[in-house]
Amino acid sequence: MARTRTSLVALASATALVAVAGCGAADMTQQASPFANARGAKTVTLSVQSWVGAQANVAVAEYLLEHELGYRVDTVQIDEVPAWDALSQGRVDAILEDWGHPDQEARYVRDKKTIRSGGELGVTGHIGWFVPTYFAKAHPDVTDWRNLDKYADSFRTAESGGKGQLLDGSPSYVTNDKALVQNLGLDYQVVFSGSEAAQITQIKQFAKGKKPFLSYWYKPQWLFEQVPMTEVKLPAYKEGCDADPEKVACAYPHTPLKKYLNARFAGTGGKAASFLKKFSWGTEDQNKVALMIADQKMSPQDAAREWVDANEKKWRPWIPG
């Protein structure tokens, strides 16, 4: 993740969010809501990523835009980098959870000025390597990367080619893991599960049998509530240590997640734009909604409604007067 996650491309319906991660689809990055950036339209088009935390953001924003401000909300699921192109062109109005795209930010925010910052989401994201806490308690030294080779046999699977397995998500995610394994000289093989949902299934299967595993994972994420995991300490992150993707040999940073708006929408989007700029919540709230969607199998709309009903003091200040 050049400090970000990407997802497979799909198109969501106007009032429903896509299912949790993992369904493949044709490239539809040229498609968008016909209402996006349309002058006078009482419609907002939001980009939604496939991981459930991002879906939780959109679910709550969609619910409040519709029920408190009277907008129709259309959603488009699209790879993160193409989403910046779509946002610049006005095919979507907002991205609510960006994990850091310095190249796109420089091009569109600073140079072309077709995208504006929408402020911070209020959630700090962090990627890392994790082992199950039950294994870390039994083998405390596994949490230092320098000891990982000692446990390579414990993490070996049929898919890892005789090496320890480092479980990753979708091959479309941009991560530093292959470079880290090589540059740190570790006896491990990165194995892609295919999607966030598939990775969750594998982690749950390992945990059910109390088996050891080493996995790329990230916070915030509701799965920590069900499968406690402990982070492996990689070489400390320093600014710029991951600038060259082939030479990176340091941990992932802690990234305040940000929102971005199409520049024209930011200026003329009225109460919807004002609302999205003010929308900001914490990790605990995002995880509550994400857990309802992913684990309790509630629809995003029902999960959003439950959170909204219980948290008026938190969301009421987001609503423009």
Concise account of the structure shown:
The protein is an alpha/beta fold and 321 residues long. The protein is 32% helix and 19% strand. Strands 1, 2, 3, 4, 5, 6, 7, 8 and 9 form a nine-stranded mixed beta sheet that branches.
Explain this structure.
The chain is of the alpha/beta class and 321 residues long. It has eleven helices and nine strands. Strand 5, helix 5 and strand 6 form a beta-alpha-beta unit. Helix 9 runs antiparallel to helix 10. The radius of gyration is 20 Å and the shape is globular. The protein starts with 42 loop residues before the first strand and ends in a 6-residue tail after the last helix.
Which stretches of 5+ consecutive residues score pLDDT under 50? 1-32
Structural class: alpha/beta
Portion in helices? 25-40%
User: How would you describe the shape?
Assistant: globular
How many individual β-strands? 9
N- and C-termini, Cα separation: 39 Å
Global Rg: 20 Å
Round the mean pLDDT to the nearest integer and report it. 88
Order of helices and strands: EHEHEHEHEHEHEEEHHHHH
Helix count equals 11
* Strand-residue proportion: 15-25%
Multimeric status of the protein:
single chain
Q: What can be said about the biggest beta sheet?
A: 9 strands, mixed
Write the layout of secondary structure elements.
Blueprint: E1 43-47, H1 52-67, E2 72-76, H2 80-89, E3 94-98, H3 102-111, E4 115-132, H4 133-138, E5 164-168, H5 177-183, E6 188-192, H6 196-208, E7 214-219, E8 229-232, E9 254-262, H7 263-268, H8 270-278, H9 283-294, H10 300-310, H11 312-315
Parallel strand pairs: 1-2, 1-3, 5-6, 5-7
Antiparallel strand pairs: 3-9, 4-7, 4-8, 4-9
